[in-house]
Amino acid sequence: MTRGSARAGDTPSQGQPTKTYDSAFLKACRREPVPHTPVWFMRQAGRSLPEYLKVREGIPMLESCMRPELVTEITLQPVRRHKVDAAIFFSDIVVPLKAVGVDLDIKPGVGPVVAEPIRTRADLERLRDLTPDDVAYVTEAIGMLTEELGETPLIGFAGAPFTLASYLVEGGPSRNHEHTKALMHGDPQLWADLLDRLADITSAFLKVQIEAGASAVQLFDSWVGALAPADYRRSVMPASAKVFASVASYGVPRIHFGVGTGELLGLMGEAGADVVGVDWRVPLDEAARRVGPGKALQGNLDPAVLFSSPEAVRTKTREVLEAAAGLEGHVFNLGHGVLPTTDPDALTRLVADVHETTAR
Predict the structure, then answer these.
(1) Neighbour tally for 310: CB within 10 Å
(2) CA-to-CA distance for 24 and 86, rounded, in angstroms?
(3) Of the listed 167, 197, 232, 274, which one is catalytic?
(4) What contacts 262, CB < 8 A, 6 or more positions away?
(5) Is the pLDDT reported for residue 331 higher than 90?
(6) 21, 31, 52, 56: which is the annotated catalytic residue?
(7) Which residues have CB under 8 Å from 207's CB, separation 6+?
(8) For the chain, what is the mean pLDDT?
C-alpha cells in the first residue's frame, strides 16, 4: 500500500498519517499490535460527571449540542478525568433531524419526541437533505476539539437509519415499535424510501464530522435488536451498508453498535463496519465466531457491574479481557452506555486497570 492511499486512521483530506494515527485506539481498530488495550465508554461525557451537570445547568439538551464551546468542554471532560484512549463527540443522534427541519425536542426523562410522526408518503417529503451549513456548529466544535485533543482520537457518530426511522415513525421512544414494524411490513416501498433518505442524511452528517477532523465514526443502531435477522437483512441492512460505503473512501475506522443484537452480529459486520460493538449479553470470543474474521470487536462489560465492589469489577473486567484474548483487535468498552448514577471514580479505576493489565 502506498503512503498516499487511504487506510483506516488516515486524514480524510490527503491520506497522510495524522497525529492520532499511532494511537492505541486506532491501532486496535486496524487490528494492529497495541501497547495496551484501548478504553473508551459510550456516554462517557454526560450525566455521570458532576462537572457535566454543572456546565449543562439550565441549558436544554439540543441547545447544548449547538454551542461549540460547550460541546468542546463536555467532550474533553472524561478525557481529562478518566484518561480514556478516545473522546467521543458530544451530540445526540437526532441533531441531524433537527437540522433538516424536523419538529422535535428532547424531553428530560423521556427522550426525543417528534411533533408530527412520519407515516405517509407526504410525510416523507418533509425530510430534506442535510448540508454542511445546517450543522456549521459541528464543524466548529470538532475543529476546536482536535486542537485540544492532540494525539487523542475523536470519534464522530450518528444514529443508524433504522433507529432514526423508529423515532420518526413512533413519534418518540417505543418499547414494541409497533408503528415502525407496521410500516416496514405493510408498505415496504415507503419504508425503503424512508431509510434511504435517512441513510443520505446520516452519511452527510458523518462526512461533516470526518472532514472536520474526526479520527473514527460510530453508527449507533440503538433499537435494531428488536428485529429478527431476516427482517434486518431485507429491510435495514441495505441502508446501513449505504452509510458505511459512503464514508469508506475517507479511510477512518467505522464502528457499528446496537443493543440486544446478539443474533445480528454477523449481519452488522457484513453491513460494512471495521469494528463491531458487542453488548454484555454475548461473550467476546463467541461474538468473534458470529462476526467472522477481518473485524475488530468493541466491548463489553455490563454497565451495571460498575455499581458493585472494586474487587467484583476487577473480576468481571478480567473475564472480558480473557474472552478477548484471541481477538484480531479489541477496544474495551461497556456493553452499553454509562448509567447516569455511575460513580465516576469507578470508571477512572477501570481505565487504569485495563491499561495496567494489558500493558505489553
Answers:
(1) 13
(2) 9
(3) 167
(4) 279, 281, 282, 287, 290
(5) yes
(6) 56
(7) 246, 247, 250
(8) 94
Q: Distance of CA 91 to CAs 100, 107, 142, 148, 222, Å?
A: 16, 15, 11, 18, 15
Q: What is the pLDDT of residue 6?
A: 38
pTM of the predicted structure, to 2 decimals: 0.94
Q: Helical H runs in the chain?
A: 24-29, 50-56, 61-64, 68-82, 95-99, 121-124, 136-149, 161-170, 178-186, 188-212, 229-235, 237-246, 265-270, 284-291, 310-323, 344-358
Residue 4 has pLDDT above 80, yes or no: no
* Mean pLDDT confidence for 22-29: 98
CA distance 106 to 98: 10
Distance (Å, rounded) from C-alpha 40 to C-alpha 26? 12
Asked about 137 being catalytic, the answer comes back as no
The fraction of the chain above a pLDDT of 90, given in percent, is 94
Catalytic residue among 43, 81, 119, 254: 43
43 is a catalytic site residue: yes
Active-site pick, 92, 231, 285, 302 = 92
The values of phi and psi at residue 20, to 5°, are: -95, -5
Burial label for 271, CB within 10 Å (0-12, 13-18, 19+), is buried
Q: pLDDT per residue over 85-97, tens digit each?
A: 999 999 999 999 9
Q: Which three cell numbers stand for residue 302?
A: 455490563
Instruction: Please state, in angstroms and as integers, the Cα–Cα distance from residue 279 to each residue in 52, 146, 256, following that order.
Output: 25, 29, 11
Q: How far is CA 151 from the centre of its chain?
A: 20
CA 13-78-297 angle, 5° bins: 65
Q: Tell how strand 296-301 and strand 275-277 pair up.
A: parallel
Q: Which of 7, 47, 233, 349 is catalytic?
A: 47
Give the model's confidence band at 109: pLDDT under 50 very low, under 70 low, under 90 confident, else very high.
confident
Pairing of strands 254-258, 275-277: parallel
92 as an active site residue: the answer is yes
Active site residue 56: yes
The size of the chain, in residues, is 360
Q: How far apart are CA 15 and CA 17, in angstroms?
A: 7
